[in-house]
Design a protein that fits this description.
With 79 residues, the protein is mostly helical. It has two domains: 1-43; 45-79. The protein is built from three helices and no strands.
Protein backbone atom coordinates (compact mmCIF):
# COMPACT_ATOMS: atom_id res chain seq x y z
CA UNK A 1 0.00 0.00 0.00
CA UNK A 2 2.83 2.34 0.85
CA UNK A 3 4.46 1.67 -2.55
CA UNK A 4 1.30 2.80 -4.34
CA UNK A 5 1.19 5.94 -2.24
CA UNK A 6 4.83 6.73 -3.09
CA UNK A 7 4.11 6.20 -6.79
CA UNK A 8 1.06 8.45 -6.58
CA UNK A 9 3.13 11.18 -4.92
CA UNK A 10 5.85 10.96 -7.58
CA UNK A 11 3.26 10.99 -10.37
CA UNK A 12 1.60 14.06 -8.85
CA UNK A 13 4.94 15.91 -8.78
CA UNK A 14 5.70 14.94 -12.38
CA UNK A 15 2.29 15.98 -13.66
CA UNK A 16 2.42 19.33 -11.88
CA UNK A 17 5.54 20.27 -13.90
CA UNK A 18 4.68 22.39 -16.98
CA UNK A 19 7.28 20.66 -19.18
CA UNK A 20 5.84 17.26 -18.39
CA UNK A 21 2.32 18.44 -19.11
CA UNK A 22 3.47 19.86 -22.44
CA UNK A 23 5.14 16.57 -23.39
CA UNK A 24 2.05 14.59 -22.42
CA UNK A 25 -0.16 16.90 -24.48
CA UNK A 26 2.11 16.63 -27.54
CA UNK A 27 2.22 12.86 -27.25
CA UNK A 28 -1.54 12.61 -26.92
CA UNK A 29 -2.03 14.84 -29.96
CA UNK A 30 0.33 12.73 -32.08
CA UNK A 31 -1.34 9.53 -30.93
CA UNK A 32 -4.76 10.93 -31.87
CA UNK A 33 -3.53 11.90 -35.36
CA UNK A 34 -1.98 8.48 -35.93
CA UNK A 35 -5.12 6.70 -34.76
CA UNK A 36 -7.31 8.87 -36.98
CA UNK A 37 -5.06 8.30 -39.97
CA UNK A 38 -5.02 4.55 -39.43
CA UNK A 39 -8.81 4.50 -39.22
CA UNK A 40 -9.18 6.42 -42.47
CA UNK A 41 -6.55 4.39 -44.34
CA UNK A 42 -7.94 1.05 -43.23
CA UNK A 43 -11.47 2.05 -44.21
CA UNK A 44 -10.81 3.08 -47.82
CA UNK A 45 -11.97 0.88 -50.68
CA UNK A 46 -9.93 0.19 -53.81
CA UNK A 47 -12.04 2.70 -55.75
CA UNK A 48 -11.36 5.41 -53.19
CA UNK A 49 -7.64 4.64 -53.32
CA UNK A 50 -7.82 4.94 -57.10
CA UNK A 51 -9.34 8.40 -56.82
CA UNK A 52 -6.66 9.50 -54.36
CA UNK A 53 -3.81 8.16 -56.51
CA UNK A 54 -5.39 9.77 -59.58
CA UNK A 55 -5.61 13.14 -57.84
CA UNK A 56 -1.98 12.93 -56.79
CA UNK A 57 -1.00 12.04 -60.37
CA UNK A 58 -2.92 15.01 -61.76
CA UNK A 59 -1.31 17.33 -59.23
CA UNK A 60 2.20 16.08 -60.05
CA UNK A 61 1.60 16.33 -63.80
CA UNK A 62 0.23 19.86 -63.50
CA UNK A 63 3.12 20.91 -61.30
CA UNK A 64 5.65 19.50 -63.74
CA UNK A 65 3.99 21.22 -66.70
CA UNK A 66 3.95 24.58 -64.94
CA UNK A 67 7.60 24.19 -63.93
CA UNK A 68 8.61 23.17 -67.46
CA UNK A 69 6.86 26.13 -69.06
CA UNK A 70 8.38 28.54 -66.55
CA UNK A 71 11.88 27.10 -66.94
CA UNK A 72 12.03 26.71 -70.71
CA UNK A 73 9.41 29.21 -71.87
CA UNK A 74 7.64 26.64 -74.02
CA UNK A 75 4.12 27.31 -75.13
CA UNK A 76 4.69 31.00 -75.72
CA UNK A 77 4.21 32.34 -79.23
CA UNK A 78 6.67 34.89 -80.48
CA UNK A 79 5.09 36.61 -83.46
Amino acid sequence: MQILQQLATKAQRAISDETTLDLIERGATKAAYVASGATVVSGLTINEWGVIVGMIGVGLTTGFNVWFKMKYGRGERNE
